[in-house]
Amino acid sequence: MTRSNRFFRTVFPVLLLFMLAGCGGGSGGSDSNSGSNAGGDSNNGGSSQMLRANAGNDRDVVTGTTVTLDGSQSSTTGDGQLSYDWRLVSKPSGSDAVLTRAQAATPSFTADADGAYVAQLVLGSGAQESPADQVTITATRGNTRPSADAGADQNVKTGALVTLDGGASADADGNTLTYRWSVTSRPAASKAPLSNSTTRTPSFTAGVAGRYVVSLVVSDGTVSSRADSVVVIASQGNSVPVAEAGANQEIATGATVQLDGRASSDADGDTLSYSWRIVSQPQGSAAGLANPNSARPSLTTDALGDYVIELVASDGQASSVADRLVVSAGPVLALFLYDNEQQAIIRAPNQVTTAADVEEGTGDRTIVNVPLSRFVFRAVGRDYTIQDVSTEIIATPSGRTLDPNFQNFDNGVIPMGTTVEFTTNASSVTGSGIYDFVFTFTIVETGEKYRFAYRLTVN
């Protein structure tokens, strides 16, 4: 850089982040029904805490499907955090299936061969362990058995009209389903018929206080599902509220998720209070819930993995059974803009205007290098590939040139766990005037295209 005369330059870098393809969407939630294979209780040595593992319901899938298991409806009577230990105890001959994230609430595997896969879950809390619970996943290449879902348990006032809903039932082949509902248990004095028992939404009147159990079987026209049941409790006095924590969610690690328990209900119409807590979180996480006694708390994830969160609703007289959801924090490539004045890392996208004095020179003298911005990439949970790294000059003063360039950044792979620091620069600026130019690159795994637009003014 020359040092004969002093001049002033102002850089107007405008950071534009075009998220042309973002992170993937969410997953289905869970209701208050226990799995058909619910395990036993454990109090290991007389402790007051009881642990019950719930590996979920048996189901059928198409061979080649990636299967996600769900142990989030496992329960404890204590308030300690839970741990999950899954194992594939049986798989078909010739299968190479292995569990991914076997210590998470929602591990997965690929059903790579026809046959039955048996997964086992043991729930832990401190030194205690539950009895094992198992779930069977059956993979076939032909027609697949559909899965019945009778819906969430309900608490109602005696005399209420109860509407059931089997709409969450599914068929892996996409076949149209038919429905067959039946009342398998009811209070002794009840004679209530089940109306529209071959539709998705049958109904009955809970005319007598007590417990009603209704079973659903669905068919794709070739094979029928296993039965699933829903429990309806009718009461004459105060009804116990029903908590609804919402659907499972998938977000990027470091993102904030808004929870919502406003779908919780009380048959008496009483005002509800809410109590949320984190039941399980990834190792090393220090995340906590913001406003855990509100209907809509939030959670900012700080580690890769599953956060199992439960909600209990109360009407002031009785508390609901806990309902749980899973927030899965996935891999993320986080880009930060480093503010040199504040010495703080700011999450992009951001808009920044900076002004700085540089060494003396003349309006016609070439500037060797003008530093523009400093960035940090952090790869969490997986490797990420950078491609299409390029720069483009949009406009320069007549007869002037410059060389926009990245330093310490090019096409290639950023390995998982790596932090990469790089800068944008303008080199060989040949004199005074206004220069417009851009820096671009793409993240292969997410499809995100980044574009940084700068205006450099040299006086």
UniProtKB/TrEMBL annotation:
Residues 52-142, 147-235, 237-331 form the PKD/Chitinase domain. The keyword Chloroplast does not apply. PROSITE patterns: PROKAR_LIPOPROTEIN. InterPro entries: Ig-like_fold (IPR013783), KIAA0319-like (IPR029865), PKD/Chitinase_dom (IPR022409), PKD_dom_sf (IPR035986). Residues 28-52 are annotated as: Disordered. Residues 30-48 have a biased composition (Low complexity). This is PKD domain-containing protein. It comes from Salinisphaera aquimarina.
